[in-house]
Design goal:
Arp2/3 complex 21 kDa subunit ARPC3, 7 helices
Length: about 270
Amino acid sequence: MSHIHIPDGVLPLWLWLSGWIVALIAVAIAGKYAESSDVRRKVPLLAVVSALMLVAMSSEIVPIAYHVNLTVIAGVLLGPALSVIAAFVVQVILAMLGHGGVTVIGLNTLMVTTEMILGWAFFRLLIRALGRHRVRWSAAVATVVTLAITTTMLIGLVALSGVGAATARETGALNPASLTFANPFTGGILKVGLFSGGERPPEAAQNTSVKKFAVIVYSLGSIGWVIEALVTAWILGYIARVRPSLLWEGALRAPPSHFPGDEGGVS
């Protein structure tokens, strides 16, 4: 839900440039952290998870014009540092496929990174509170809360831009004027969304007020949150059952309670 489908030339220079600068700084810091940690064995996992996110974000769920991101799953498996790198790689490739402009790669990286890290943090917190036997419930709740926060961030970003064209978006079967749903099997609404970019044709796009944009995004998004929560819960529950080490010995591993060299106690 946090992916911004805005072409080049829409957002003001100061906004997208700031996004690029902060994103590059975050990637540089994450890269330095990764060098100091045991990241070599995680490179295959990073590649697989990034590929899954790429496919998910390229596939539209009609008629609600929603893209499942798998960001919470990715964040849980990769952890904060690798999440930054994965988000940047995925956003660069998506921009090359027409999912948003090149100028918004920085903002998209920050939005998706935030979603991944929040998902990781909320899932970790819920697992500590509820126990490891509540993986599916923890995953579902973490996903809904995370997506609600990042969706609000998306609306805030559009409002901050002050550009009316930033509110034009694909609405699937939802009529943005009347806020009513049409039959998704008529009028050409039902379509294959794979690598479509998610943007409406220029002649069909409609600029709306930020308030109506928020209503549209929350209306469609809340349906998508439930779908993504179910997908996330099923996948993480399956991983916990067949390959628990990916969860408990990876990004969710508890930090050591003592530092090396303290085994002999304090003299």
